[in-house]
């Protein structure tokens, strides 16, 4: 998960922001950035309240945690 967040950050900051800055300065460059499924992968883990980590946290706080609840 850390790798996905770092990869998303690098793509977002280094490529998109730098590209925007170059365009504002009149520098022409090719756009080779493709976000792919980065957002989908990160949403799967971090989206609230239905992300995997939110569900895992909620389930771990229950006194009688039930394994069948996790796939929901």
Automatic annotation (TrEMBL):
Q: Which domain of life is it from?
A: Eukaryota
Q: Which InterPro entries match?
A: Myosin-XVI, Myosin_head_motor_dom-like, P-loop_NTPase
Myosin motor domain ranges (all copies): 1-72
- Whether DNA-binding counts among this entry's keywords is no
Answer yes or no on keyword Glycosyltransferase.
no
A single cellular component GO annotation: nucleoplasm
GO molecular function: any one?
actin filament binding
GO term, biological process aspect, one: neuron projection morphogenesis
Membership in a protein family: Belongs to the TRAFAC class myosin-kinesin ATPase superfamily. Myosin family.
- Report the PANTHER family cross-referenced here: UNCONVENTIONAL MYOSIN-XVI
Q: What is this protein called?
A: Myosin motor domain-containing protein
């Amino acid at each position: 998960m850390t790798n996905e967040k770092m990869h998303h950050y690098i793509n977002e900051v280094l490529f998109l922001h730098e590209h925007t800055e170059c365009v504002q300065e009149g520098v022409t460059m090719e756009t080779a950035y493709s976000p792919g499924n980065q957002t989908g992968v990160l949403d799967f883990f971090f989206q609230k309240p239905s992300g995997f980590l939110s569900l895992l946290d909620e389930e771990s706080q229950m006194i009688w945690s039930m394994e069948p609840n996790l796939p929901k």
